[in-house]
Every structure is written in C-alpha cells, then in structure tokens.
Amino acid sequence: MDTLIPSIQFIGLHRRGMIAIQLWIEKHLKYIFTLPSVLFVLIMIVFPVGYTAYLSFLTGVCQVLHHLNGSS
User: Fold this and answer.
1) Inter-residue contact 32 to 25 (CB < 8 Å)
2) Closest CA to 18 of 10, 7, 28, 8
3) 47-61 pLDDT, tens per residue?
C-alpha cells in the first residue's frame, strides 16, 4: 500500500502543475498571440536594413565589371 501513495502524490503534483501552466497561459494570452506577428514584423524590418548595411561595405561595381571582362 505504500507504493500507491507516491503515485497518488505524483498525480496531485502533476495536476497542480498543469493548472499552474493553464493559469499562466490564460494570464499571458495576449502576449502569446501577438508575439509571433511582432517577431515577424521585426525580422522583416531588421533583415533588409542589415543586408543593405552589409552590401554598402562591398564594392559591387568592381566585382560586376571584373566578371564581365571574363577574368577570374
């Protein structure tokens, strides 16, 4: 009979844990729904700006002319 007590206690702890998770989700639901869209917008803004900054440090004209002349 002693072996049943820990499993009953574990079930009680598991239920309390699940309830705590459900409460946390309900409390932060507005952030959970908006976070993916906010991250998407930030990525769509930051990536082009960062890529433009990266390209501004390259000498693209020289590379294109070098390729057109046929030299390797």
Assistant:
1) yes
2) 10
3) 999 999 888 887 666
Cα separation of 17 and 15, whole Å?
5
3 state SS of 2: coil
Q: Which domain holds residue 55?
A: 4-68
Q: What is the tens place of the pLDDT at every residue in 12-50?
A: 666 777 888 889 889 989 999 999 999 999 999 999 999
Specify the number of domains making up the chain: 1
User: Using only C-alpha atoms, what is the Rg of the chain?
Assistant: 28
Residue 41 is encoded by which pair of tokens?
Answer: 């917008």
Indicate the pTM of the whole model. Answer: 0.50
Helix 4-27 vs helix 29-56: angle between axes, to the nearest 10 degrees?
Answer: 60
